[in-house]
Amino acid sequence: MGNSHGVKAELSFKDIFPKLKDYYDSLFYNMRTGPVSSGLYGPCNNINNRFKPSANTWNSFYQPCVKLGLYLHELKNRKEDTRKPYCNFYIYELKREAMNKAPNIKSYDDLHNQLINAYKNVSVGIPDVCKEYVSFMNDDVYNIFAMFKELYDHYNKFQRDSNNCEYVKKCAEKYKEFSHKVKYDYKNIVQEELDEFKLKFHKLLEQQPNCKNTSELLNSSLGKVDASATRSEALLGHIESPVTWTSTGFLFFAILVIMFILYNYTAYGSYLRPRRRMLKNIRNRKYKKHYELMKLYEQLQKNVIQNKHSISYNSVE
């Protein structure tokens, strides 16, 4: 089962670290004795024998094969429009595992296809839901993923030990290095996620203000919250819900629809319509009376003018 063409595959670094890394690692721990893991034993042994036949257990490709298989198996239960971050993480993890355990692999498309073909022998069914994402992976993209992982590793350590300002220094140094290394082709999508990180970082920093004045932070763009950021309003604290106006507009539209239904198709509307007609008739009668009075006034004016002319004519005679 491949990716449907209904949702376009797109490279993104959003919502990946640390959430999906933790999710990926938890699957192997929680499912290592389940039926899916058991079904992967044979196919993954075959894959490992193909790539690293004499490797020790800790250095073999068996465990990465199982972990990637479990991950893809769980993705089949997710809606297609929510898979994007999961598939982007998959291509990173595919290359990371291969670089660590099977460094001689040159084509990650080929590695992915070999894994999918091996997974076809698993009775529980493991879908090929991330196929269209594999071609996005190259050395530049991999390095961006790796830098985000390192950045969030420092962030998570600071979150667990907010009294240790050393992690603030490491975040600032890595953020500065990251900002300078990103190539132009990926600048926009990376900067958006860097701004997201900056927002999270400053919220966490508010809980430990003693670390705000470290020299590394003050000299890094991570410490500068200004209008140059892609999402500067959010970073400055002026966070407005992006759905506020949409929700208000939807509510207003819903009220109009309800009023229309009540008026045209319910007893309430039947109650209102005669009174509306009565008010309309009263208004029309008033308008008609006003119109008649105006006509009478104009006629009187006309008569007065004619009488004046008549009197004037007679006096001349």
From TrEMBL:
The chain crosses the membrane at residues 250-271. This is Variable surface protein. It comes from the Eukaryota. Keywords: Membrane, Transmembrane, Transmembrane helix.
